[in-house]
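pasting for ref
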Amino acid sequence: MGQLRDLYPHQQEALDQLRQSIMAGKSRPLLQAPTGAGKTVLAAHIVTGIRRRMKRVCFVVPSLGLIDQTFDRFVENGIDPADMGVIQGDHHWRRPQAPIQIATAQTL
């Protein structure tokens, strides 16, 4: 995996709070932030951490329009495109064996 971008203080705080929530036994913590707050950057950090433990990841976005955007943001944030696939019909990045999958809820 490539180099992740550094997080801004508000992003690091959100990531720390998510980790604390998980450590406290919460199984489904939720991150809510306004547009432009860097949720996808945070997701790239989370996905990278999960992959370091050799686990697979399915990142679900709310609309088809966000699939390519998320893929691009992950690449910009250091995730190797060879490690990613998209679950969506005949999408050009469809690679079911890739350890990181991006999908919409409708396609799952």
